[in-house]
Design goal:
The complex is a heterodimer of chains A (about 80) and B (about 375). With about 80 residues, chain A is mainly alpha-helical. Chain A has one domain. Chain A contains two helices and no strands. Chain A is flat. Chain B has about 375 residues and is mainly β. Chain B has a domain of about 260 residues: TonB-dependent receptor, beta-barrel domain (Maltoporin, Chain A), CATH 2.40.170. In chain B, about 5% of the residues lie in helices and about 65% in strands. In chain B, the strands form two sheets. A 16-stranded antiparallel β-barrel of chain B has the order 1-2-3-4-5-6-7-8-9-12-13-14-15-16-17-18. Chain B has a two-stranded antiparallel ribbon with strand order 10-11. In chain B, a hairpin with a 7-residue loop joins strand 10 and strand 11. Chain B starts with 6 loop residues before the first helix and ends with a strand. The interface between A and B is large, with 48 and 97 residues.
């Protein structure tokens, strides 16, 4: 039985996924490497009251809505 | 009236704003904001005050008071009605409860106008995973609106809204964070504006057209998916890019993208932003219907027409109380200013206020100044 290139790639991915599920996913950005992500200027929403107002204006002036999310943001480190 | 459309989703942004960080409660802060929108014959201003305070180790409460004072002589108003003034008051209350890596949030919002009441109940749950590199958020909100007419006290119609959201925030590298959001919103009830009219060709009229009330479908379902990425530049500045794709059962399809550059300079943080939005029109929209009651549904709301909008924004903040010195119980305080210039080109909405002959009217264009001045305190 021959396995084509795509099949081999899928097999490798399946093995890797199986290995990952057994061992758990290791965070590739360690907590001590998150100083830049913790900087206040990296907050996904630095000023919630201001961005909520602008979102309100856009939804009133345009036909689209949603999808911009309840952005909080920051470093993801406790 | 036009601004009502934005109430349901924008309040969710305030109440559910903690979700990208499930494992920690949002910071205690107060914002006192003055907002001004001035353009297209409409002037809206007012205050917005937000207070957030943690009680105990695992609970945080948030409250927001917001007012729109509206003075409108918009293109819709001057062509089919009379200029008016109106006030809208909105209250929001929310609570976040943290347990381990899970945050649960509940919220309630009430918006009141003389002829429009809206209530929204929201709930969400967020979970940090994979060494706090990933945050998954599921959210649901239920809205109930009551639509009235200022010239008819017996007129009363209902609208039910439901929001379903899934959000994923992911640390990608030590300099890059991204968030992906998917939202479905369904509306059911009286969705058109009770005051707005559509235009139809009428040979018996001196100008060649007449007006009749618009009539929308009773349901609408929309889907939106948005990606936001923020990158830390090597010299302590950030670059943020966003993209959103939107589609709904009224055949509106849109693409929205923005880029923002943020740069700290000593106690100042300045930013510049550009936003682009392009949309198709609703299937029942027409600038001029061929005759009266030409279609089952009909609308001439320019916000549902094909359009392109662009925003150029600048802003800055100055930190006048700094951590760790602080002042009394306040750790940090900033004064902030932002100015956005909004420009909208309508591809199929004629400016009939100029009185040009039928078929010769120019397309309408809107330009608006959006100003925000606010103080923020962390404690």
């Amino acid at each position: 039985m021959r396995i084509n290139k795509l099949g081999r790639l899928l097999l490798v991915l399946a093995v890797l996924a199986g290995t990952a599920s057994c061992s758990g996913i290791e965070p590739w950005v360690k907590p001590y490497e998150r100083d830049r992500l913790a900087d206040p200027i990296m907050a996904l929403d630095m000023d919630p009251v201001s961005s909520a107002y602008l979102q309100h204006v856009y939804e009133a002036r345009e036909g689209a809505r949603g999808g911009e999310g309840a952005a909080g943001g920051g470093c993801g480190c406790n | 009236m036009n601004l009502r459309r934005g109430i349901f989703v924008s309040v969710l942004g305030l109440l559910l704003c903690s979700h990208a960080l499930a494992g920690v409660l949002p910071e205690d802060r107060t914002d006192i904001l003055y907002h001004l929108y001035d353009g297209g014959g409409v002037r809206i201003d007012g205050p917005s005050v937000l207070m957030r305070k943690q009680i105990g180790k695992s609970t945080s409460f948030v409250g927001n008071y917001y007012v729109d004072m509206i003075s409108s002589a918009s293109i819709d108003v001057i062509t089919t009605a009379s200029p008016y003034t109106e006030e809208r008051t909105q209250w929001s209350l929310g609570m976040d409860y943290l347990r381990g890596n899970t945050t649960m949030t509940v919220g309630y919002t009430s918006s009141v106008e003389s002829d429009f009441d809206a209530e929204t109940y929201s709930f969400s749950v967020s979970q940090d995973m994979f060494g706090d590199m990933t945050t998954l958020t599921l959210s649901y909100a239920l809205g109930n609106d009551l639509v009235g007419r200022s010239d008819d006290p017996t007129f009363e119609r209902e609208v039910d809204r439901q929001h379903y959201g899934v959000g994923l925030t992911q640390i990608l590298t030590r300099n890059l964070i991204a968030t992906l959001n998917f939202e479905t919103i369904t509306d059911e009830g009286f969705l058109n504006n009770p005051y707005r009219s559509v235009r139809y060709a009428d040979a018996g009229s001196a100008r060649g057209f007449s007006f009749e009330p618009e009539l929308y479908p009773n349901t609408r379902t929309s889907n939106a998916i948005g990606l936001r990425m923020r990158y830390f530049l090597p010299y302590r500045a950030t670059l943020e890019g966003t993209y959103r794709y939107f589609t709904d059962t009224w055949d509106i399809e849109s693409h929205t993208a923005s880029i923002t550059y943020t740069h700290p300079i000593g106690p100042f943080v300045v930013h510049a932003k550009y936003r682009y939005h392009d949309q198709t029109g609703a299937h029942f929209y027409s600038d001029l219907f061929p005759r009266s009651e030409a279609t089952n549904f009909r609308g001439r709301d320019k916000e549902l027409s094909p359009l392109t909008s662009q925003t150029f924004g600048i802003g800055g903040s100055f930190e006048f109380i700094s951590d760790p010195e602080g002042w009394r119980f306040i750790k940090r305080g900033t004064v902030n200013f932002s100015y956005n210039f909004l420009s909208i080109d309508y591809d199929d909405f004629s400016d009939i206020s100029a009185g040009e002959p039928l078929g010769m009217e120019p397309l309408y264009q809107l330009e608006a100044d959006i100003i925000q001045i606010f103080f923020s305190f962390w404690y």
